[in-house]
Design brief:
This protein has 153 residues and is α/β, with parallel strands linked by helices. The chain contains four helices and eight strands; from the N terminus they run ββαββαβαβαββ. It has a four-stranded mixed β-sheet. A four-stranded mixed β-sheet has the order 5-6-8-7, with helices on one face. The longest helix is centred in the middle third of the chain and has 18 residues. 14% of the residues are buried. The model has no long low-confidence stretch (mean pLDDT 90).
Length: 153
């Protein structure tokens, strides 16, 4: 097997018994780093220290990762212009934070007869945010609601 010393220097190909003896003489452990390599690679190190470092590395990776949330914006097909602008300001803020946005249009009563108004509104939203977002789920009708999911670029 290929042996790497505790200070990182390469010892070359060494017999297993000899590597175990070297590790025992130094009061350290023989750890298999790459079992699938030809020949396998082992390192003389302190196993407790190695486990501690790998835990620290995993914790650091978890700390730096961003959880993408799906924020929902609810609208009606006959939304007023100021209300629409307020909702769009919130949508842009969500994209700046790196979150996805689910736009939900709720139809009530006779609004069901005018689905094209809802589709036009969702297309208007799509065009406004085309530079900062992409459509992840096309607008689809589920019962009395029309939904579309947008993700930041």
């Amino acid at each position: 097997m290929q042996l790497i010393d505790f200070d990182g220097s390469n010892r070359g190909v060494v017999a297993i018994q000899e590597a175990l003896q070297i590790a025992e003489d130094k009061g350290l452990d023989l750890v298999e780093i790459s079992p699938n390599a030809e020949p396998p690679v082992c390192k003389i190190t302190d196993l407790g220290k190695l486990k501690y470092q790998s835990q620290k590395k995993a914790a650091e990776a978890r700390k730096n990762q961003k959880v993408v949330e799906i924020k929902e914006i609810k609208m009606r097909p006959n939304i007023d212009t100021h209300d629409y602008e307020t909702k769009m300001k919130a949508v842009r803020r969500f994209f700046d934070e790196g979150d996805k946005v689910k736009l939900t249009l709720r139809f009530r009563g006779r609004e069901m007869a005018h689905m094209e108004l809802g589709m036009a509104l969702l297309n208007r939203v799509r065009e406004e945010v085309a530079t900062i977002a992409k459509v992840e789920a096309e607008p689809k009708l589920e019962g009395r609601q029309m939904m579309m999911v947008l993700a930041p670029r």
